[in-house]
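Hi everyone,

Forwarding the result from last night's run.
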Amino acid sequence: MYETFYGLSAKPFRLRPDPHFFYGSKGHKRAMAYLDYGLSQGEGFIVITGEVGAGKTTLVRNLLNNLPSEQIVAAHIVNTNLDSDDTLRMVASSFGLPYENASKADLLTRIEQFLRACEQQGRRALLIVDEAQNLSARTVEELRMLSNFQTDDKSLLQTFLLGQPEFRVTLHSDGMSQLRQRVIASYHLGPMDAAETQAYIEHRLATVGWNGDPAFSAGAHAAIFGYTGGIPRKTNTLCDRLLLMGYLEELHAFSESDVETVIRDIDDEFELPAGAAIAAIAAAPGGPETAGSGGQIDERMMRLEKSIVSVLSILKKIVATPAAAAPAEPHE
């Protein structure tokens, strides 16, 4: 919608992880260095943790895009809400092995035969497990057991584990000492700082042909960082909404107040609906008198109405644009 208005070739702030937009902040470069180091070692476990939306999956996609396929066979598991047996099935499936109606013994045999076949072909097998915080201790132990497949001088499988910070609780729990001994590198991916957040925004815009339109003031960048805390996914969400508002309001420069307007709209959308809010107030101990003043309720209602008006303005803009109209020319 707003891409043509700003002369962009595509949406710069889509939520889907896309290695095409990979930005190497200090943290992301260091995390990539740990992954590259792990690849050079060819054994053991590499553990990367980070907050929700920190860019772990984009990191993996970037790694997979640059792997030498003639040397490394990689499998990427994302669905980790599984028990230990189902995890083995997922490992087999990810490497292209038959898994339906197979017993655990059959699965292990097939995986071992596959790993040995890779070794005979001069290739290494790499297992990447995303969302590792969902793995139970038993499932993690099952993955560790797969690392026991080895020749006299090297391991047949290397594993990268990526997850949210709570995965470290599992890693340091009782019974995980054997796995910890096989972790050759571990890194926590933190948020970007203010300067990196600005560079990240400009990098994504430049990737789709940005020529300075729209412009962002220093205050706008500060407000974006203040709200997102340097988390890439939150930055994408806010900036996407900001460009949408810019299109609707025909803005070619964003100020701090523009960013704050979008932030209020986003926050309003996550408010309880008016009926639910009133019911919650009525059910509060002591009744409405202790739940909040009438002024607070009026303020919530006004914010809800403002959010509805904002949605209606978007719909009017879409309906008013003829379907056959030519795309708007990019602003010079």
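Residues 294-320 form the longest helix (27 residues).

Cheers,
N.
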